[in-house]
Design goal:
Radius of gyration: 16 Å
Number of domains: 1
Order of helices and strands: EHHEEEEH
Oligomer: single chain
Helix content: 10-25%
Number of strands: 5
Number of helices: 3
Strand content: 35-45%
Structural class: alpha+beta
CATH superfamily: Hotdog Thioesterase
Largest sheet: 5 strands, antiparallel
Length: 153
Amino acid sequence: MSSSDNRLITEEPCKEFIFPCRVYWEDTDGGGVVYYANYLKFMERARSEWLRELHIEQTGLREQYGILLVVARVEANYKRSARLDDLLQVSCHVIEQGRVSLTFEQNVYRSNGNLKKDELLLEGVTRIGCIDAETFKPKPLPELIVQALSHYS
């Protein structure tokens, strides 16, 4: 949803969203291995692009609904290291919907380049909270997001 577009989703989104991501020099440490905290950036990008796939923009959520989506908790189980120039596939799948939060299962895979998930590098779970943009207090998820998620069940 752009700031001037507040339509509901009519097409059915996929249950698991996959975000392709290339590892660049800036993502790595001196040895060409992805710095551990950068996996969180990859996961954030996947969630943001998932929202875009649902025609929801975070700037629109703030402008039209007065809310922000914030990370409340992250679990990351690192399995293997990604390296410079690897093509990654970052998955994003809602596993729980609360009144003021969403919990995502998010995994990072090294791809063989055919947009096929191959080697599991990280298993993750991310809980996102919905808060009032001014008071930073919990606020219910807007109907726009609830409607978009109803296509998943």
